[in-house]
Design brief:
alpha/beta, OB fold (Dihydrolipoamide Acetyltransferase, E2P), 5 domains, seven-stranded parallel β-sheet, six-stranded parallel β-sheet, 37% helix
């Protein structure tokens, strides 16, 4: 890979700025695509909203007031003199010289334009397509576009699609595709470019997945499943298993009895009972003399699982340990010793389980809760603490089966759709922002019943009060003076977050105002209402996950969605309570990004491809990659890709 300093005009200062955008090499730079495009066509001054070009005829004047600045100047448009005003773009002053031709977008009234944007050249006639990039301070879209074009001239671009596939689909070259993506002259340019680039992304993804699947060490542990003892354990539970839970266990038992290594994903809707399926599986390994471990993404979840295990296994002579970042060193050392000698049969914990000092005597099963919250290498590191270890993943993000089978082709999948008996459907209602009295009265009713409430907002701090959880706390403290209110957000340290959640579970907090950090798995049975502000900012799948924080009891529970936008989309939540049906809608409306959580935690990082829109392309590239793999020796570039691929879990 070539360094950024090989491109003319890119010095240390620019490299620092590009690094902030995760651009470290020339290859990163040329694959840094615009996140959107502006489609512009000139208008006349007869319209209210205008896009006009002309020459600057006065020196721009810059003035300041409060925290804003205003830039004003005159330009000649269609033989008229027009005054242009734009706010908070003071940095443009030195670039707006007398006589310069520019294009102005904005609102026109009485020979004046209040501009929303200024483009520093005349866009010409016809439709102009302008690329827009994610930026950091000190970089403009024009800067990035220039650096990419210079890199394309100076550097070799690796074209990963074999010639026979390029010919099959009539693709342009990768270099041309990248150039058109950054310098489109028409919508057709964009379509041709995207077809080529998204296919390559999905082809490489499929190639890696199929290669890893073919090379995966399938040799596993053959386990004897003692159905009699397992059924005795199931009979000790306070509830009966659902049909889907039983079917998932049958899938798991078949995996266990085979000589191949288990690599199974258990998908289950909120409240479907995935955890008990994994604990029954852990018990089956215990009966065969194997240790097992359960890794959870947060300390509060790990503690929750630990308490459940202690309760369920108390009469079965099973030694269970808990290890998190809060575990004292002396206690950790005891646990390390117990795992190494085999005295401890099961251990549950967070990332602390990945510590190099932690060794098992005879690890047979690794269970990962909310698997997409952990990176590939983290999951692999835990699995590698044993020999031919079986792996079970749990996910509360319900992905439609057809998509899941394509995306997770290297895993077997069991789906639990039915809910645990005794739980009521959660009443969901959409409110406009100004319907304050209605939703405050509903909150007050729950608090009066001695129930607890979650309030969720998308951001920590914002100019918009509705997006700021600190200001929300002030507002709710005024509305509910006699109740304890606290806040929780992702920027807090883990210990601080866990302390607040413990206080909430213990009912020391009545109203918890939070970002989406409460999305996964937290089980507070006394919480009966969740209120989500600016709900349109979330996908339906995330809203369903958040809704699942309440209704974990036999009490009537409520989810209130507050928004002035996209209310028709949100109203789907009022009538659909099935996570799999909602995920189908979410896939149609938003694609895969929201389903898979924050990208850096997942395994897919598509820049051009978008699912489900490009599912057909994924299927085609999947079949193509299988054929190419049979003759991989013919393709040195592709060999390099699969050699550098980490062992998948």
């Amino acid at each position: 890979m070539f360094g950024l300093d090989t491109i003319k005009g890119i010095g240390p200062s620019t490299i620092d700025k590009l690094n902030k955008l995760d651009i470290y090499t020339v290859e990163d730079l040329v694959s840094y695509y615009p996140y959107k495009y502006k489609l512009l066509r000139k208008t006349s001054l007869d319209e209210e909203k205008v896009t006009v070009a002309g020459k600057i005829i006065s020196t721009p004047a810059l003035s300041y007031f409060k925290k804003m600045n205003r830039l004003s100047f005159q330009m000649e448009v269609e033989k008229k003199i027009v005054t242009v005003t734009i706010f908070n773009r003071g940095f443009l002053k030195d670039k707006l010289s007398l006589g310069k031709s520019i294009t102005v977008l904005g609102k026109y009234e009485k020979n004046s334009i209040t501009a929303s944007d200024i483009i520093l050249y005349d866009i010409g006639n016809g439709t102009t397509v302008i690329p827009v990039y994610h930026l950091v301070k000190g970089l403009t879209s024009k800067n990035i576009n220039k650096y990419i074009n210079d890199a394309l001239k100076a550097s070799y671009v690796y074209d990963y699609i074999p010639d026979e596939l390029s010919n099959k689909y009539n693709f342009i070259s990768k270099k041309e595709a990248i150039y058109k993506a950054n310098n489109p002259t028409s919508i057709k340019d964009l379509d041709i470019s995207r077809d080529r680039l998204k296919y390559e992304e999905l082809f490489i993804y499929s190639l890696k997945m199929n290669y890893l699947k073919s090379k995966r060490d399938n040799k596993g542990i053959s386990i004897i499943v003692d159905k009699t003892k397992i059924n005795e354990f199931i009979s000790s539970l306070e509830y009966s298993l659902t049909k889907d839970q039983k079917n998932a266990l049958e899938d798991i038992f078949k995996d266990m009895e085979s000589n191949s290594r288990m690599n199974r994903l258990i998908e289950g809707d909120v409240g479907s009972g995935k955890t008990i399926v994994s604990l029954i599986t852990m018990y089956a390994y215990f009966l065969n003399g194997y240790q097992s471990t359960l890794m959870a993404p947060t300390e509060i979840l790990a503690i929750q699982h630990y308490n459940t295990m202690i309760k369920l296994f108390k009469d079965f002579n099973i030694n269970v340990a808990l290890i998190t970042s809060s575990t004292k060193k002396s206690e950790k050392n005891k646990i390390y010793e117990g795992l190494k000698t085999g005295l401890i049969n099961m251990v549950v914990g967070t990332h602390s389980l990945l510590n190099e000092e932690l060794e098992f005597n005879n690890l047979g099963l690794v269970v990962t809760d909310e698997q997409h919250r952990f990176g590939v290498n983290q999951r692999k590191n835990l699995r590698n603490k044993g020999n031919n270890v079986d792996v079970l993943y749990l996910s509360a993000t319900p992905i439609p089966r057809t998509y899941a089978l394509t995306l997770f082709g290297d895993m077997d999948i069991s789906i639990i759709e039915s809910k645990i008996s005794g739980r009521k459907e959660i009443t969901t209602k959409v409110f406009k922002n100004n319907q304050t009295d209605e939703y405050l009265n509903m909150i007050y009713k729950e608090l009066k019943e001695d129930h607890q409430v979650y309030i969720v907002s998308p951001l920590i701090e914002s100019e918009d009060e509705s997006l700021d959880i600190k200001k929300l706390k002030e507002k709710f403290s005024l509305a509910f003076k006699n109740y304890n209110i606290d806040i929780l957000h992702g920027k807090m340290k883990s210990k601080e977050k866990d302390e607040i959640m413990t206080r909430y579970k213990n009912h020391d907090i009545d109203i918890l105002i939070s970002t989406t950090v409460i999305e996964v798995g937290v089980d507070v049975k006394n919480a009966t209402m969740i209120v989500i502000f600016d709900a349109e900012k979330f996908g339906l799948a995330t809203l369903h996950q958040l809704r699942g924080r309440v209704g974990r009891n036999d009490l009537d529970s409520y989810c209130l969605l507050i928004s002035n936008k996209e209310t028709e989309r949100l109203k789907i939540m009022e009538s659909i309570h099935d996570g799999f049906k909602l995920s189908e809608e979410d896939f149609k409306l938003r694609g895969s990004g929201d389903l898979f959580g924050t990208r850096q935690h997942g395994d897919m990082n598509f820049k051009v491809a978008k699912l489900p829109r490009d599912l057909d392309v994924l299927k085609a590239s999947n079949e193509d990659s299988k054929k190419i793999l049979k003759d991989i020796d013919k393709y040195p570039l592709l060999q390099n890709i699969i050699k550098s691929t980490v062992n998948h879990d």
